[in-house]
Amino acid sequence: MKFHITGLNHRTAPLEVRERLAFAERALAEALRALKDTPGVLEGMILSTCNRVEVAIAVEDQADPQALAEIFLAESHHLDRAWAVPYLYHHQDRQAIQHLFRVAASLDSMVLGEPQILGQLKDAYAAAKEQGALSSFLDTVMTRAFSVAKRVRTETEIGKSAVSVSYAAVELARKIFGTLEGRKVMVIGAGKMSELAARHLRRSGVSGIYVANRTRERAEQLAELFQGVIVEYEEFINMLPEVDIVITSSGAPHYILTRNDVKRVLERRRNRPMFLIDIAVPRNIEPAVNGLDNAFLYDIDDLGKVVDSNRQERAKEAGEAEKIIEAEVERMVARLKAREIAPTIVSLQEQLEQIRAGEIERVRGKLGALTPQQAEAVEALTRGIVNKIAHGHISELRKHAGNPEGSHLIDIIHRVFRLGG
Predict the structure, then answer these.
(1) CATH 3.30.460.30 for the 2-159 domain, yes or no
(2) Does 322 qualify as catalytic in the annotation?
(3) Class for the domain spanning 165-308
(4) Does the pLDDT of residue 410 top 80, yes or no?
């Protein structure tokens, strides 16, 4: 049996290509059934996300897995196979296992260490299992992939630091306030980045979000997303003493918050700390605000530096993660090789037992009448001889199960003892 992965991702194919080869959720079940019914395919699974499409298959030894996967992808989307081929990558056997482990651990993601891919992989696994497209082999490999991903998360810091501007803002807020439980947020300007930051803050437990935007309709949309309260744009400064965190992304061509504005707000807050996130270009908040006690102002460049630093830290952690994966791949390959050798060991034992029983039967007439004790002694003697003959060969098979010469040794044993299969 061969294990093979064919796919494309954000590095090998542009978005318009990934879109054409993606599997819609509603079409996945039918695609999995078609994959399972493909001649030569024993097991199969499909992973389809915005950044990657991969087909993992276990196939019969005589099958060409690369051709099977390419034809399946092309026919599933009514495309010319030759059109898709330049964007595809292929991994087989050990390399396929390594690739799968790296994907599960988010070492192959666009954002290193992001957690979403593991959930997407678990969904792909569940879908394949539901359609009966996945059984013993892929089940074993996938279960191990999930364990490897968990080990990487536990033993490294690869997912601990923010690598998006919006989430970096939330991390900084936590450092300032300790906890975000009960904190209030004001979003001024309803841009996409402020929406993302507000989304992260809501998940982190803030108690309320106020929204101020020049366009009332957009303010209503954003307020609805977070069960927020709309504040009239002209009145937002009057509301600031009530909030702990301010996010600005207004398109105003001038500062909407000056040093003097914030100074007055802090006085009304009795100098309780205030965190201001200015992600607008041009900036919405006068940089001199940073000179005020208890005012913590970060602009887009400040957040960018945090993100860059965190990316570097994740890259360092990725090196440790790769070591974990390398060791886990070796363990997985050895385990699979041991499974491959098991039928040979059983066949060898059965063959030797047949020879032993046949020889006893052949000479039974020459032995005359044996007492039960004598018959038992003959059985014990012949079994002992057979076991001693088999022991060395079985020990060597098990010893080399995970090594490259394991398959060669299996072939020798089959030829020497004339085993079937």
Answers:
(1) yes
(2) no
(3) alpha beta
(4) no
